Amino acid sequence: MKTKTTPLKNPLKSLVERGFEIHQQLLLLNEEFKKIKDQLKTEAAARPNEHIPLLDKDSIGDQWVLPADGCECRIVFPGPQLKTHLDPLQPPYLTVKSLTGDHFSSLFRKVTSYEARDKKAFRGQVTNLIGPEFAARVIDACSAPSEPKAVWKARPAGKGKP
């Protein structure tokens, strides 16, 4: 699929160029930031005796706090996340059902949901199966709005016009 490009007026061209500069800087900074976070996480994991409980009493887990001049970093080790959905075809369901006994229905409710079998082919399948008039309504009912996004790409040197 070929992309359509629009000739740019000077102020817009400046925005694109500045946006690209920032984009490139962010890529570098994000990579450096990821390395810093990974180093701190590794260090925190190696010091479990320095961990303290999370401040929120409703949260499970602990944290390692590293103060610095004018700031601090908290490496948070959250406790295991609670599974709120149990698949009756999977082993945990039978275990939970057995252990909770008569209280199972007080703790869980049965929910039925549907998902598209093939998200990539869904639009085409709906159109083929029920025709374009009704397909548009079905697709609209199954869709959520999405936000536009800006994408910057480097062009090979020496390429003046798109």
Report the span from N to C terminus.
Answer: 15 Å
- Radius of gyration, CA atoms, in whole angstroms: 26 Å
Spatial order of strands in the largest sheet: 1-2-3
Rounded mean pLDDT is 88
Give the helix proportion (percent range): 40-55%
User: What does the main sheet amount to?
Assistant: 3 strands, antiparallel
**Dominant shape:** flat
Oligomer: single chain
Share in β-strands? 5-15%
Number of strands: 3
Poorly predicted runs are none
Query: Pairing-aware structural class of the strands and helices?
Result: alpha+beta
Q: Helix segment count?
A: 5
Report on the structure:
The structure is a single chain. The chain is α+β, with helices and mostly antiparallel strands. The chain has a domain of 71 residues. The protein contains five helices and three strands; from the N terminus they run αβββαααα. Strands 1-2-3 form a three-stranded antiparallel β-sheet, with helices on one face. α4 packs across α5. The protein starts with 9 loop residues before the first helix and ends in a 21-residue tail after the last helix. The model has no long low-confidence stretch (mean pLDDT 88).
